[in-house]
Amino acid sequence: MVKYSIFTIARNALTGHKNWPKQWRSPEPKATYDVIIIGGGGHGLATAYYLAKEHGVRNIAVLEKGWLGGGNTARNTTIVRSNYLWDESAAIYEKSLQLWEGLSQDINYNVMLSQRGVLNLAHSLGDVREGVRRVNANRLNGVDAEWLDAERVKDFCPIINISKSARHPVLGATLQRRGGVARHDSVAWGYARAADALGVDIIQNCEVTGIKREGGKVTGVETTRGDIAAKKIGVVAAGHSSVIAEMAGIRLPVTSHPLQALVSEPIKPVIDCVVMSGAVHVYVSQSDKGELVMGAGIDSFNSYAQRGSFHVIEHQLGACLELFPIFSRVRMMRTWGGIVDTCPDASPILSGTSVEGLYFNCGWGTGGFKATPGSGWCFAHTLANDAPHPLNAPFSLARFESGALIDEHGAAGVAH
Amino acid sequence: MLNIDCPWCGKRHETEFRYGGEAHIARPEDPAKLDDAKWAEFLFMRTNTKGYFAERWLHSHGCRRWFNVIRNTVTHEIVGSYKMGEKPPKLPKPAGGAK
Q: Minimal CA–CA distance to A40: which of A199, A194, A223, A238?
């Protein structure tokens, strides 16, 4: 792997930038691997990277049915934060945020993490109490959090409307200063390049069509590019987790829904933080190109279509205009949808299954992007040791039988 | 945007309805006899079909009655709706993209 640095840029400038090597290979699949990761999104690539780096497993394939950065990794609103309510969630998301903070150096790829601060607005007395409670819970868990009243929200984000006569007035907000945004496709490409350098085979245009089992144990996969044998399989297929699970005769508690987002035309810098509101259903930040990036809640119905209904967008823009009247004449440029796998308790599943050697990392629902490094790190540990790390042990499939659910609808329900 | 055919009121806009998820999940006849795994299956496990899917809708801003719809979760094509307790309509051959 060519190390990226200012000297590499200078050297390549001398040859007109015509000699940059490919960032990763496109190998033919081998007949057998120690570990196969199904799904080449951020979480899958991160899993492969940490398996190779932290656990010394080198004979790994990542199978991607499309291309890298073509799914949810490049379809989200890039928000990174760790201010979740419960101890279990705070621990895993905070691990992830800590990995984010060193990620660009670790994988020698600029993921453009911008810790610009994330506001979660409160619009009612109930919201205020819940917000203050979350700040206190975060602090007890070592997650940075502050409570701002409406005036201080206005200081932090001057374009916000804090008028008392608004339909849903801003009464305050939680602030996580270490939260922010990152560059989404850099995350996919950076992990791919770093994993490839450690010998991981990244195989694109390779759709898994079957899971081969013998005596309750996985033996490999059937794919559109032939059969591949493996001792262990990690499924990191987001919205298509249920499809893979069905191939192995497993039932999951997830349902797939479209989650839409949209961007405006590029405008001059106007908002230098991330603003989220669970009550009026919108979240906004501004990209480095100047586009306002916005999203809201999922479409209610099950879908695998990567598109949703227009009334959802109409609703979120109504909410956005109430918070930011200054946006009233901004034109929207693009909308898109991703397919998210939502869990009944709005918490993910990183778990073994009833099939030996088959592991699932799914159910991240609407908020998986922020968790990419932590999810990969924990899942790699689980695959390498055939046992979960303490950070992801609570996120097992067994919790749906034991009843030990981790209800994060407050932190994850709409806010992603 | 879906146009949903309410069996009582006819075709209406999606915003008049509320989604009820997977259809035909029968409540256990004798709940006291269920073990934890069976409860988990009833409460949480879902088929999450990619393709033709039987689902429940509530006409919440209309007649306020529940009914079932067969819809393709890849193309969003709606095959038909039927009242609670009725048999679902026959499925067409899988459309493009559906598996």
A: A238
pLDDT tops 60 at residue A205? yes
Q: How far apart are CA B5 and CA B12, in angstroms?
A: 6
What residue in A sits closest to B1 (Cα-Cα)? A309
Give the closest of A240, A253, A256 to B44, CB-based.
A253
Phi and psi angles of residue A11, each rounded to the nearest 5 degrees, phi first: -60, -40
Sheet hosting strand B18-22, strand order edge to edge: B18-22, B52-58, B66-72, B78-83
Distance from CA of A306 to the nearest CA of B (A): 9
| pLDDT higher than threshold 70 for residue A10 | yes
Encode pLDDT of A216-254 as tens digits.
999 999 999 999 999 999 999 999 999 999 999 999 999
Q: Which of B99, B60, B63, B82 is nearest to A242 (CA)?
A: B99
For residue range A322-335, list pLDDT tens digits in order: 999 999 999 999 99
Q: Please indicate whether, in this complex, the C-beta atoms of B73 and A305 are within 8 angstroms of each other.
A: yes
Whether residues A400 and B21 touch (CB distance < 8 A) is answered with no
Q: Give the alpha-carbon dihedral of A251, A252, A258, A260, to 10 degrees.
A: -160
A318 vs B: CB within 8 A:
no
Instruction: Note which residues in 281-310 of chain A have CB less than 8 A from chain B.
Output: 300-305, 309-310
CB pairs under 8 A between A and B: 69
In chain A, the residue whose alpha carbon lies closest to the alpha carbon of B37 is A401
Residue A290: count of CB within 10 angstroms of its CB: 14
- Rounded Cα distance between A256 and B49, Å, is 9
> For tokens 């839409």, what's the residue?
A260
Question: First and final CA of chain B: distance in angstroms?
Answer: 22
Rg of chain B in Å (alpha carbons) = 15
* Alpha helix segments (H runs only) across chain B: 36-43
